[in-house]
């Protein structure tokens, strides 16, 4: 059953495999053959594919399955033409590297954020007290 996620959402390997109609082991194999595929991985090894990864993998699948290229042929194509040319956009930028954008908040939003911050600080203090009492 397909998952309805926004295009900007990260995908698990199972979600991406289902969306593309390939097995998960195929995606893992492509990771070994295409250095450009760089999903985020948790400490437990769980993969999360960024929108750029999804676009890249869809392109790889297109060349392999529809255009009938070999893996070596797709690798050569990427090397000769470059991914930006093939995909038509900047890809594989580090999701966390971009400088945070300044967000303008109205007075109500600021008030809510201050309340949340205060509540979190209070919870943190309670946790510290509970942990120090447990020792």
Task: Provide tags for this entry.
135 residues; mainly alpha; Multidrug-efflux Transporter Regulator, Chain: A, Domain 2; 3 strands; 58% helix
* Name of the top-level CATH class of the largest domain: Mainly Alpha
Give Rg in angstroms: 21 Å
Spans with pLDDT under 50 lasting ≥5 residues? none
Remind me, CATH topology of the largest domain? Answer: Multidrug-efflux Transporter Regulator, Chain: A, Domain 2
Tell me the structural class. Answer: mainly alpha
Mean pLDDT: 84
Order of helices and strands: EHHEEHHHH
Describe this structure in words.
- This protein is mostly helical and 135 residues long.
- It has two domains: 77 residues, Orthogonal Bundle (Multidrug-efflux Transporter Regulator, Chain: A, Domain 2); 34 residues.
- Helices cover 58% and strands 5% of the residues.
- A three-stranded antiparallel sheet has the order 1-3-2.
- The radius of gyration is 21 Å and the shape is elongated.
- The termini are far apart.
Question: Strands, helices and their partners?
Answer:
Layout: E1 11-12, H1 13-20, H2 24-33, E2 40-41, E3 47-49, H3 51-66, H4 71-81, H5 83-87, H6 107-134
Antiparallel strand pairs: 1-3, 2-3
């Amino acid at each position: 059953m397909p998952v309805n996620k926004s295009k900007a959402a990260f995908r698990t390997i199972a979600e991406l495999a289902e969306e593309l109609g390939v097995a998960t082991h195929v995606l893992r194999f492509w990771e070994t053959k295409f250095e450009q595929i760089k999903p985020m991985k948790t400490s437990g090894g769980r993969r999360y594919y960024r929108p750029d990864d999804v676009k890249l993998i869809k392109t790889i699948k297109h060349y392999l399955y529809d255009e009938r290229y070999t893996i070596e042929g797709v690798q050569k194509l990427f090397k000769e033409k470059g991914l930006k040319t093939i995909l038509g956009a900047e890809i594989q930028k580090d999701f966390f590297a971009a400088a945070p954008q300044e967000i303008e908040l109205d007075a109500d939003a600021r008030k809510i954020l201050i309340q949340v911050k205060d509540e979190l600080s209070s919870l943190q203090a309670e946790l510290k007290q509970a942990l120090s009492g447990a020792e």
